[in-house]
Protein backbone atom coordinates (compact mmCIF):
# COMPACT_ATOMS: atom_id res chain seq x y z
CA UNK A 1 0.00 0.00 0.00
CA UNK A 2 2.80 2.41 0.92
CA UNK A 3 4.46 1.72 -2.45
CA UNK A 4 1.29 2.75 -4.34
CA UNK A 5 0.98 5.97 -2.33
CA UNK A 6 4.64 6.75 -3.01
CA UNK A 7 4.25 6.06 -6.75
CA UNK A 8 1.15 8.27 -6.90
CA UNK A 9 2.92 11.09 -5.03
CA UNK A 10 5.93 10.94 -7.38
CA UNK A 11 3.64 10.94 -10.45
CA UNK A 12 1.79 14.03 -9.20
CA UNK A 13 5.05 15.85 -8.47
CA UNK A 14 6.49 15.02 -11.90
CA UNK A 15 3.33 16.15 -13.66
CA UNK A 16 3.64 19.53 -11.96
CA UNK A 17 7.30 19.94 -13.00
CA UNK A 18 6.74 20.49 -16.69
CA UNK A 19 9.52 22.31 -18.55
CA UNK A 20 7.13 23.62 -21.20
CA UNK A 21 7.16 27.41 -21.36
CA UNK A 22 3.84 29.09 -20.65
CA UNK A 23 1.94 30.42 -23.64
CA UNK A 24 2.57 34.15 -23.84
CA UNK A 25 -0.43 36.39 -23.42
CA UNK A 26 -1.22 39.09 -25.91
CA UNK A 27 1.16 42.04 -25.78
CA UNK A 28 -1.73 44.38 -26.48
CA UNK A 29 -0.29 45.17 -29.91
CA UNK A 30 -2.79 44.57 -32.73
CA UNK A 31 -1.49 44.00 -36.26
CA UNK A 32 -4.16 44.23 -38.97
CA UNK A 33 -3.85 42.97 -42.53
CA UNK A 34 -6.10 42.91 -45.56
CA UNK A 35 -5.52 39.66 -47.43
CA UNK A 36 -6.87 39.08 -50.93
CA UNK A 37 -7.25 35.65 -52.51
CA UNK A 38 -7.35 35.18 -56.25
CA UNK A 39 -6.45 32.43 -58.68
CA UNK A 40 -3.89 31.14 -57.47
CA UNK A 41 -2.25 33.39 -54.95
CA UNK A 42 -2.66 35.38 -51.77
CA UNK A 43 -1.72 39.03 -51.50
CA UNK A 44 0.19 39.64 -49.37
CA UNK A 45 1.77 36.20 -49.45
CA UNK A 46 3.95 36.91 -46.41
CA UNK A 47 2.70 38.23 -43.07
CA UNK A 48 5.24 39.18 -40.38
CA UNK A 49 4.34 39.87 -36.74
CA UNK A 50 5.90 39.58 -33.29
CA UNK A 51 5.17 36.90 -30.74
CA UNK A 52 2.30 38.02 -28.54
CA UNK A 53 0.75 40.29 -31.17
CA UNK A 54 -2.96 39.99 -31.80
CA UNK A 55 -3.30 39.33 -35.52
CA UNK A 56 -6.42 40.51 -37.32
CA UNK A 57 -6.79 39.43 -40.95
CA UNK A 58 -9.57 40.83 -43.12
CA UNK A 59 -9.74 38.28 -45.93
CA UNK A 60 -11.66 38.36 -49.18
CA UNK A 61 -11.59 36.71 -52.58
CA UNK A 62 -11.80 38.48 -55.90
CA UNK A 63 -11.83 35.37 -58.10
CA UNK A 64 -13.93 32.33 -57.25
CA UNK A 65 -14.32 30.50 -53.96
CA UNK A 66 -11.21 29.91 -51.85
CA UNK A 67 -10.31 28.98 -48.31
CA UNK A 68 -7.78 30.33 -45.84
CA UNK A 69 -6.16 27.80 -43.56
CA UNK A 70 -3.51 28.33 -40.86
CA UNK A 71 -3.11 24.71 -39.70
CA UNK A 72 -0.68 25.54 -36.87
CA UNK A 73 -3.31 27.82 -35.34
CA UNK A 74 -6.33 25.60 -36.03
CA UNK A 75 -7.88 28.17 -38.38
CA UNK A 76 -9.79 27.24 -41.54
CA UNK A 77 -12.23 29.67 -43.15
CA UNK A 78 -14.10 29.65 -46.45
CA UNK A 79 -13.87 32.78 -48.59
CA UNK A 80 -16.85 33.52 -50.82
CA UNK A 81 -16.97 36.29 -53.44
CA UNK A 82 -18.42 39.56 -52.14
CA UNK A 83 -17.90 38.66 -48.47
CA UNK A 84 -15.16 39.64 -46.04
CA UNK A 85 -14.07 37.21 -43.34
CA UNK A 86 -12.27 38.51 -40.26
CA UNK A 87 -9.85 36.16 -38.53
CA UNK A 88 -8.37 37.08 -35.15
CA UNK A 89 -5.75 35.15 -33.17
CA UNK A 90 -2.76 35.70 -30.89
CA UNK A 91 0.63 34.90 -32.41
CA UNK A 92 1.56 32.76 -29.42
CA UNK A 93 4.58 30.89 -30.80
CA UNK A 94 7.71 31.95 -32.68
CA UNK A 95 8.56 30.48 -36.04
CA UNK A 96 7.69 30.33 -39.71
CA UNK A 97 4.30 28.86 -40.52
CA UNK A 98 2.44 28.17 -43.75
CA UNK A 99 -1.04 29.20 -44.74
CA UNK A 100 -2.86 27.87 -47.77
CA UNK A 101 -6.09 27.68 -49.71
CA UNK A 102 -8.29 24.97 -48.22
CA UNK A 103 -10.97 24.87 -50.95
CA UNK A 104 -10.03 23.22 -54.23
CA UNK A 105 -9.95 26.04 -56.76
CA UNK A 106 -8.48 24.56 -59.93
CA UNK A 107 -5.16 23.57 -61.40
CA UNK A 108 -3.13 26.10 -59.38
CA UNK A 109 -4.66 25.16 -56.03
CA UNK A 110 -1.61 23.32 -54.68
CA UNK A 111 0.60 26.38 -55.18
CA UNK A 112 -1.77 28.78 -53.42
CA UNK A 113 0.25 29.24 -50.25
CA UNK A 114 1.68 31.93 -48.01
CA UNK A 115 3.99 32.37 -45.05
CA UNK A 116 3.35 33.68 -41.55
CA UNK A 117 6.55 34.74 -39.77
CA UNK A 118 6.40 35.29 -36.03
CA UNK A 119 9.53 36.91 -34.54
Present the secondary structure layout:
Blueprint: H1 2-15, E1 30-38, E2 41-43, E3 46-49, E4 54-61, E5 66-70, E6 75-79, E7 85-90, E8 95-100, E9 113-118
Parallel strand pairs: 1-4, 3-9
Antiparallel strand pairs: 1-2, 4-7, 5-6, 8-9
How does this structure look, described?
The structure is a single chain. The protein is mainly beta and 119 residues long. The chain has a single domain, classed as Immunoglobulin-like (Sandwich), CATH 2.60.40. Helix content is 12%, strand content 44%. It contains one helix and nine strands; from the N terminus they run H-E-E-E-E-E-E-E-E-E. The protein has one helix at residues 2-15, and strands spanning 30-38, 41-43, 46-49, 54-61, 66-70, 75-79, 85-90, 95-100, 113-118. The strands form three sheets. A four-stranded mixed β-sheet has the order 2-1-4-7, with no helix packed on it. The protein has a three-stranded mixed β-sheet with strand order 3-9-8, with no helix packed on it. The longest helix has 14 residues, at 2-15. The chain starts with a helix and ends with a strand.
Task: Please outline what is shown here.
The chain has 119 residues and is mostly beta strands. The chain is built from 1 helix and 9 strands; from the N terminus they run αβββββββββ.
**Beta-strand content:** 35-45%
Large-scale geometry: globular
Low-confidence stretches: 4-10, 17-22
Question: SSE order, as H and E?
Answer: HEEEEEEEEE
CATH class division = Mainly Beta
Helix content: 10-25%
| Count of individual beta strands | 9
Radius of gyration in whole Å, from Cα?
20 Å
Mean pLDDT: 86
Look at the structure and name the CATH superfamily. Cupredoxins -  blue copper proteins
Report how far apart the termini are: 51 Å
Structural classification: mainly beta
What's the architecture, going by CATH? Sandwich
Number of H/I helices = 1
Give the spatial strand order of the biggest sheet.
2-1-4-7
The CATH topology name reads Immunoglobulin-like
How many domains, as an integer?
A: 1
- What summary fits the major beta sheet? 4 strands, mixed
Amino acid sequence: MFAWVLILLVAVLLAGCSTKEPTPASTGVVKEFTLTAKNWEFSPSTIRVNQGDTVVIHARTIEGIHGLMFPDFNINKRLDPGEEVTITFVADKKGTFSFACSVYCGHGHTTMKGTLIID
